[in-house]
Structure of Histidinol-phosphate aminotransferase:
Amino acid sequence: MERLTPRVGIGQIAPYRSSRVPPDGRPFIDLSLSHNALGPSTKAIAAYRKAALSLHRYPDYEHTLLRAAIGRRYDIATDHITCSNGSDEMIQLVAEAYAGPGDEVLFHQYGYRGFHKAARMTGATPVVAAERDLAVDIEALADLASERTKIVFLANPNNPTGSYVPAEQVQRLRADLPAHTLLVLDSAYADYVRRDNYDPGFGLVEEHDNVLMVRTFSKLHGLAGLRVGWAYGPPSIIETLDRIRDPYNVGLPAQAAAAAALGDPEHEAATLEHNDAWIAWLSHELRAIGVRVYPSVCNFLLIRVPPDPTMSVAAVCTHLRDRGILVKTLGEYGLADCLRITVGTEEENHALVDALREVLE
Ligand SMILES: Cc1ncc(COP(=O)(O)O)c(C=O)c1O
């Protein structure tokens, strides 16, 4: 009798492993996921609480109020927007809609791990372009685009490297891609970037029919626990994604809280101010104790632990864990000697630096 087996490609997806450990009752500092150190906006919390009274109702399958709020905030047309259960779902929906067995899905070496999973889930072949010094090499990506390439995923800025691709290079990449290839700009951390030559992709979406931008409420808006993402693209692509998504993919409290978060510019500004100050402080302090810190335009830092035969990265993590601090290991990205550290609160950042100083100095 033939054995039951999952579809081709599924076996190539590594099970998700978080660097988080199950809490054993002790309080711990979680810098392992790219959370917003300030938490959610109070307006989002109020909207979430109010939505609790309507939990017996299905959510609005058209995400009407949420799309209107996004449209107002970014001055874009609501029929060019759809929403998802976190941007991870959007990445998967795009792959399911446009790629399949025999197709190629192209992305960059240290690109966000969701790209690999999305490609494999559809049975398509993931193709990986080498990066240079932990930054995307646009030429390498363009060189690998072929007749079979259905999607190019570009995380800009990228997680876990924290690096970004200047606007002019993204434009060049798009111009080099065949018309049948969809360029997906994953701009999850766009709001954090303070660089004049960066562009999250609104203009590219408006000018071309093969560009889609994906965004999330998990970072700037601090709603990771609610799972809300969205995409901005040509109506034909948006309509395609709407066909295949679960009609009730974004829960009712999630839609309400996300829409309210967009009406809280003070929370956004406080988040950015906190991030700017503490990413600079962390970079300086970590460099001072001999850690290599890669420049980051996000809310986390990629650090390389100095080579030391007596102190492996695993030992560093164990030391941090013993002090109740969790950081992200990056073996799955082939960056076994690196760690990703998210900007925390003032107290958490000090605790991290003190603990690393103890173990490394
Ligand atoms: C680059 C990038 N894209 C997408 C996501 C998915 O975010 P979410 O599913 O929480 O919206 C993440 C999460 O860390 C990310 O770093």
Remarks:
- The first helix runs from residue 42 to 51.
